[in-house]
Specification:
Length: 200
């Protein structure tokens, strides 16, 4: 989907996603000492706002002005401050070595676009900083529920790891996520990779 299509999707009065942060974001990051965080592809801001509530100084980036505006309103209602930045992730260049945490949650780009984005995310990490990547796994097509149906944009942990030379891989594999549907609970299969830039 392009910027205009996402603007249209976010244009409704209700949130497209829940206001609660992603379960893996909360599970993986709740124990980290807060610092500077970069949420790439923040959408309506649910993860960025949760991070801000944990004490992080958060920059939330997305190319949908409509999504960011909803995030800003939600953040104001919850009494936290987030820096909102409208930019296309394929062109965005954060300051290198600045962030203690970089988050890529459910960002799916065709071709080598995601590998390039991983490089950008890794470059933005400060020494000791954490990169968390979560997204729909390729196996979700045949064994899971929902998500994009184009195999070219789906993730594999080994491909993500290969695109992160110089980082220490702390976790890399699949994670199952329960999805509530009209037909009952279904299971989605996600990729989860957590990596860290060495402290020195």
């Amino acid at each position: 989907m392009d910027r205009h299509e996402w603007d249209e999707r976010y244009a409704g009065t209700e949130l497209v996603w829940t206001a609660q942060a992603n379960q893996f974001v909360m599970a993986e990051l709740s124990g980290l000492p807060p610092g500077r965080a970069l949420d790439l592809g923040a959408g309506e801001g649910r993860n960025a706002i949760w991070l801000a509530e944990q004490g992080w100084q958060v920059t939330a980036v997305d190319f949908s002005a409509v999504g960011l505006a909803k995030g800003a309103k939600l953040a104001e209602g919850r009494g936290v401050s987030v820096q909102w930045a409208e930019a296309d992730l394929r062109e965005y260049e954060p300051a290198p070595g600045r962030y203690d945490l970089v988050l890529l949650a459910y960002i799916h780009l065709p071709g080598d676009g995601f590998a390039r984005l991983l490089g950008t995310a890794a470059d933005a990490l400060a020494p000791g900083g954490t990169l968390l990547v979560i997204g729909h796994d390729l196996d979700n097509l045949s064994h899971g529920y929902g998500g994009p149906q184009d195999p070219d944009v789906l993730h594999r942990a080994d491909a993500i790891v290969a695109a992160l030379p110089g980082l220490t891989i702390q976790q890399a594999g699949q994670a199952q996520r329960a999805v509530q549907t009209a037909d009952g609970e279904r299971t989605a299969i996600d990729t989860l990779v957590r990596a860290q830039r060495p402290a020195s």
